[in-house]
Design brief:
mainly alpha, two-stranded antiparallel sheet, 20 helices
């Protein structure tokens, strides 16, 4: 690796650093700054921006935002809250499973944010270290992206690269769920109990930690709009339709291309279904369209789209511009030791901050190396490595909602609350996936 590549890599790291310090859409904007330096300063040709990924995210987020405006997310959160509160002593196991299912159905991790204050309250009320449940619930939401049939990452994987949806789900759902369960079990032993945690005791002495009676006052009964329940069920029906369209291509309209009838691709199918669904929810629930841009999901989705636009484009340009060295190095190891391809996926996702962008950048390499498709699918959950640097929105949200101070970034940055559950969940998911792939395919 020559000095020029190291300098370019330093630009990427600098963009991530300044973007993470800015927060919000700043991560994507600083990605654009890095791209400017690489293209105008180092002469790297920019790759195509990840338009397909961004449009899928925007379409799904728009439908979810309309559902939120109609009260549908509050309805689903109410259902989830009942499940979590019915098993308070097992919140470290139950909460991540609920967050996993929440994200699995929605296709975006941003919809699980409303569950974070509930998880904190239940853990705190039962004298359980909130970090244990908060950290693994955040990781569970990330893992679910690589199992959700409506996530942008899934669409990038199975249709352009030729993998079947049923095959991916058969491997990835049990693999990622096993990873979440293993990490949840380990999390039950992580960290000191609240009575022995110095940061919590300090906040308690300062009066910055809410008392139990204050938390109970915050638990206000939700008054849901009339269309809340129907909007939630309409959204979930849309998810089912997308799964069926992916499993059975004959359900999609076909068009003549070079003398062949080709079904409408799934990226466009998702966009059409989700936009139509959003319009129908607006019509049936009589929700004001003016409320949609102000919803939490819409704002978080816009942040995610801008982040992918700038940072993923920057990372993709860096990787493609130095493909012979970087990809060649990964390829040499992966040919001799196939499992090392998962390591390449992991560290690429740390830089790209996106499962979809990482899939788009590296999975074609795995195919070109002749790695079995089942093995590539099994290693795919390794693209969930963006927890490694504690700068992603969901990680920051979890730390902010944990008012006890137990979910935090350590003195050495990388010794943060999400590192152990993230590594355990990802490694377990890949190992279980490889086991399923070897036995079934």
């Amino acid at each position: 690796m020559n000095i020029l590549i190291l300098l370019q890599f330093a630009v990427v790291i600098a963009a991530i650093y300044f973007g993470s310090r800015t927060g919000g859409v700043g991560l994507g904007l600083w990605g654009g700054v890095g791209l400017f330096v690489l293209s105008f300063g180092f002469g790297l040709q920019p790759t195509s921006p990840p338009i397909d990924v961004m449009l899928i995210i925007l379409a799904v987020v728009m439908a979810a935002a309309v559902m939120e405006a109609a009260g549908g997310i509050d309805y689903l959160v109410g259902v989830a809250e009942k499940i979590i509160r019915s098993n308070p002593k097992y919140i470290v196991i139950v909460a991540p499973l609920v967050c996993y299912i929440f994200t699995l159905g929605a296709g975006t991790g941003h919809v699980f944010y409303p569950l974070l204050p509930i998880i904190f309250q239940v853990a705190y009320e039962n004298n359980i270290r909130p970090e244990r449940a908060m950290a693994i619930s955040t990781i569970a939401s990330q893992q679910a992206i690589t199992a959700s049939p409506v996530s942008a990452a899934m669409i990038v994987l199975y249709e352009p690269l030729g993998f079947g949806l049923a095959k991916i789900m058969l491997i990835c759902i049990p693999a990622t769920m096993a990873g979440v369960m293993m990490a949840s079990i380990i999390q039950t032993r992580i960290g000191k109990d609240l009575k022995n945690d110095p940061e919590y005791q300090k906040r308690l002495a300062e009066g910055t930690v809410p008392k139990l009676e204050e938390l109970q006052k915050e638990r206000k009964a939700r008054t849901l709009p009339k269309g809340a329940q129907i909007s939630a069920w309409m959204f979930l029906t849309g998810v089912v339709l997308i799964v069926l369209a992916g499993l059975f291509p004959s359900l999609r309209p076909s068009f003549g291309v070079e003398g062949k009838q080709i079904p409408l691709n799934m990226a466009l199918t998702i966009q059409i279904i989700m936009l139509t669904l959003a319009a129908l929810i607006l019509l049936i629930t009589k929700t004001s369209a003016l409320k949609i841009p102000a919803t939490n999901v819409a704002q978080a989705g816009l942040t995610a789209a801008i982040g992918i636009f700038g940072l993923a484009w920057l990372g993709d340009t860096f990787i493609k511009g130095n493909e012979k060295v970087l990809i060649g190095g990964i390829g040499q190891f992966a040919t001799t030791y196939p499992f090392t391809f998962a390591i390449g996926l992991f560290f690429a996702s740390v830089l790209l901050f996106s499962q979809a962008a990482t899939t788009r950048a590296l999975m074609p390499l795995g195919i070109s190396l002749g790695l079995p498709s089942a093995s590539l699918i099994a290693m795919w959950p390794a693209v969930n490595g963006y927890f490694f640097l504690p700068t992603y929105g969901s990680l920051i949200a979890a730390m902010n909602f944990d008012r006890s101070g137990t979910t935090r970034i350590g003195k050495f940055i990388l010794n943060h609350s999400f590192m152990i559950p993230g590594l355990v969940a990802t490694i377990t998911a890949v190992m279980v996936g490889l086991g399923i792939a070897s036995f079934i395919f």
